[in-house]
Amino acid sequence: MRETPTWRIPVGIIGLFLGLMVYGILIAVYLADILAGWHWLAQTVVYIFLGVVWLLPLGNFLIWMETGKWGTKPD
């Protein structure tokens, strides 16, 4: 268990925020026009998929913030 503060947590939070901002902007800029002509149900499926896919690396990222090791579970 970590007892002292680490630089990884504030840097990780800022990085996560900036990464999600960039991800959202890229989707809004590049995919909004492409998906605009699609059926609303297909748009819903795509946006739900894109809203969930960013969660895939989040577990490893949170472990790194806590332990400093990428992809290994904390003890």
From TrEMBL:
The keyword Transmembrane applies. InterPro entries: DUF2842 (IPR021265). This is DUF2842 domain-containing protein. The chain crosses the membrane at residues 12-32, 44-64. Keywords: Membrane, Transmembrane, Transmembrane helix. It holds the Pfam family DUF2842. It comes from the Bacteria.
